[in-house]
Amino acid sequence: MNKLFLVLIFTFLGASAFSQKDRAQAEFKEEVYNFGEIKEDGGKVTHSFSFTNSGGQPLIVHNVRASCGCTSPDWTRQPVQPGKEGFVKATFDPRNRPGNFNKSVIVTTNGEKPTIVLRITGKVLPKEKTIEDIYPRKMGNIRLKSSHLSFTRIAPKEVKTEELDLVNSSDEKVRVDFEGIPEHLSIKMVPETLNPGQEGKIVATYDASIKNDWGFVVDQVYLKMNGQSNRRNRLSVSATIEEDFSKWTDEEMAKAPVIEIDDRVFDFGEIEQGKKVSHAFMIKNNGNSKLILRKIRASCGCTAIQPEKKVIEPGESTKLVAQFNSRGMSGRQNKSVTIYSNDPKKSTLLLRLTGSVVKE
Questions:
Q1: Burial 271-300 (b: 16+ CB within 10 A, else e)
Q2: Whole-structure pTM over 0.70, yes or no?
Q3: Range(s) of the domain holding residue 339
């Protein structure tokens, strides 16, 4: 019996070993390839990982998946017979990807080891930046880093200064002036005249107390070149005007107003095109001082806002009636109403009107 048991064990082990050897198996000559240093503007680079099917059955590469869109793979599509070779290619695009990289290529086969991870590594040397790269926005004979000058956040009574870099990209002198400057903004060119190739700055100062507005606001200013006007030379100047409550004490916060709204989303369902629908949002002050609705702004002109009052005493409520006009609209609609208030925790609150407009 013991001899019979041993014979059965060896037979099983031999069959198992034969079965494993009989399966397809991809043996790669290398699983990691280092491209070394490559140039960002030198174009795509490709490496072919070659493998041999060391098993006893045809090897099928089911899929090859790269870890990012910058790496595009290719591979042997036909079954690889035992003892024959196949390949998996990895192509890397270094454009806009300066610095070190380490990307994986996941290979899925019918082999004994069904998943194999290959890697390509290297370092992308950044391309030398041109004047177009540094100053991408062109206006006449000058180029700017941006056509948008942002003051980001600014307090209601704050005066803030920001700068925007530019360069004279022409072969002649350029004097830069400005027109359409609003009262709350002062803007100048430093220096006023730029020699060919010379860099300069637009220096702008924003007075929020003169602007006397709330939330995100945008103004348009126009650049004149050597005294000539061109409405295409437009510079957008933006700011988000809001109170800074970060330095308030616990006592001040305890005395603050608290805005509460019963439901911030109203779904008007389906309405016929050309019809109007209204909804009254109920606003309550659950705080300990007056709630002031600084500003109410709709996302489009099709939504009219009619607040009953803008100053709400503690414990009191008011209605904010929003009316949606579906004229010229069709399909699913999502409109918003933004409320700016003196609630230190919810100074900006968003309401929504949703629904569908159907044609008769």
A1: beeeeebebebebbbebeeebebbebebee
A2: no
A3: 250-358
